[in-house]
Amino acid sequence: MTIEGYFLDxxxxxxxxxxxxxxxxxxxxxxxxxxxxxGVEIISLDLSELRISSRIGNTPRTVDFxxxxxxxxxxxxxxxxxxxxxxxxxxxxxxxxxxxxxxVVAACLVTxxxxxxxTVYGVPQFAKxxxxxxxxxxxxxxxxxxxxxxxxxxxxxxxxxxxQQRVYNLLNPYIEDYTRRLDGDSxxxxxxxxxxxxxxxxxxxxxxQIVITDDLxxxxxHDYELVAVLLHELGHLEHKHLLRRAxxxxxxxxxxxxxxxxxxxxxxxxALPTLLADMAYSRDFESEADHYALQQMHSHNIDLNYFSSxxxxxxxxxxxxxxxxxxxxxxxxxxxxxxxxxxxxxxWEERAQMVEKFKxxxxxx
Amino acid sequence: xxxxxxxxxxxxxxxxxxxxxxxxxRGDGLEYFKIWIVNILLTIxxxxxxxxxxTVRNRRYFYSNTYLNGDSFAYLAEPLQILKGxxxxxxxxxxxxxxxxxxxxxxxxxxxxxxxxxxxxxNASRSFQLRNTAYKNIQFRFNGTYxxxxxxxVVFPLLTITTLGIFYPVAVKELNKxxxxxxxxxxxxxxxxxxxxxxxxxxxxxxxxGVLCLILSLILGSSFVFLLPFVYVGAYxxxxxxxxxxxxxxxxxxxHGFEANITLSGYAMVLLTNLLLIVLxxxxxxxxAKVRMAKYFCSCIxxxxxxxxxxxxxxxxxxxxxxGEQLGDVFDFAS
Lengths: 365, 335
Fold this sequence. Notes:
The complex is a heterodimer of chains A (365) and B (335). Chain A has 365 residues and is α+β, with helices and mostly antiparallel strands. Chain A has helices at 76-83, 90-99, 101-133, 145-152, 161-182, 214-219, 223-238, 241-260, 268-299, 305-318, 321-330, 348-364, and strands at residues 2-8, 15-24, 30-36, 41-46, 51-52, 61-64, 70-73, 155-156, 191-196, 202-204, 209-213. Chain B is of the alpha+beta class. Chain B is built from twelve helices and ten strands. A ten-stranded antiparallel β-barrel of chain B has the order 1-2-3-4-5-6-7-8-9-10, surrounded by six helices. The longest helix of chain B is centred in the middle third of the chain and has 28 residues, at 104-131.
């Protein structure tokens, strides 16, 4: 058989119009000869010594000789005939898969299902398993977290010593209760810290430090609301949320990297899923911590309404004036829902509803 | 014989005339979509192992469909090479992420370390990409040095920050000069000869736009805030298009030059409709979007050929590890 194409010697960019001719020998091996258009032989070799590129769409095929010479042709079908039965042909198998409509449709469905399933169930479950089986020693590192945050975001607390002592006396029994239940199981024993400078907020850090800001202490109207805050943060520690979030984000990024695979296709669109997934994961953790707080309040016989009133104070503190206005006028909670997917925390209305749900479930018992 | 005759005539014309030869992308959105989705399916079924083969197949599709003067480019990397680099890169990424989340102090040290590693990764990545790109069976190459890379990737960006952005046009120019000037096609070095002044002209247009916005915001008051995202995106697109055109216009290969006529409206149109369709199709349009963008770019870029493209010569072959490139990719992905 004869295939039209051109020849490149690999030393210069000079292209020579030429033909590839193949002959079957008696032992069924094939001999390949490249000739220029006048029929003068340029190079000749056994087919088994050549490297022939696999088929991709309708792109040109290359026949590479061991010494760097190359024959190029756009006649894909002829090359397929030439290599038939010689190369193992995984390349052409993939080309056949790509040409089957059924395979392509199935691939779409499998891809969407797997990515969805992995994001919603697989990655969180994996992170949970890893987080709860990780050797504690690995986590013992970081008492330095707070130092770094002090140097960057936090200011010292402006509360006077007596007020700090009062809040400490209020909250510490719950921390001790938590530590007792750990039973030496964790090297991360929680401790309470007072800071300011980042609005009304509370944080649980990797090292078990729980930070409560001055603004938050001023914001709450009842001591038990502060207890609810503390229990929420203890919930983050109990469920190892920081670690799980770190694992989830990392695993999700690696998954996306394997699927999309090179940074040439990196753009806002590949960054978007990571961001959305991270925010969804964060919301789940907040709900889990809320649930833990409600359970603990219940077992300590604290009225669950303190959690609702805390949620209300936070809503007033953090909703924009516009939102507040619309909430007050029409009393509707729907206004927040459209932003649900773009938030790291559940809305405060949602959290208030959660309290009601929790109460009903307790009443049912 | 007739063929041979016209071939000789063609050659003789080629040798004497100076002319513009357009780049051309012959890929097809649907065709690439099939390749892309089957790649993803096989990657899922092999728990990620196939991803290296997928990457090679995807890149080969793009390189092989890009034509200049009737010859296509070629992507040469071996999947196994990429797989090895990728596994090590992902392992390093996981370790670094773990430290980053668990220990702020250590992650602070890692950021410092990354400043010194970045030039190495940039060079390794660029070397790998160019070594594995060929045109007419001649490979490209990159011969950067750590010191020069450190200068354009670390020192100049720091200068940009300390001068509140005034140095930025020079930093961009120097980065392009380094990237292009250290690249070669076979034994022939590329050159980049833009001036800082040309980058400052683009920069000043944007500063002008900024001043205009400031005045508008004073007149319109707070309602102007809603226009800000559009102004921001517009400014970004303008900068991208203007610097891309300048990039090609000032790059040369021996006595040949390049010319790009990317337009703000054309580029924005392709980009925005791509984004919209990707969101509407839950990401499945991603493949066709890449093809559309490649088609658009190729349709805007020409090579100003002076004489023949037939007498480039190859340089000696050398092997470059895929690790640096994969490291660059996975950390790009995470940032």
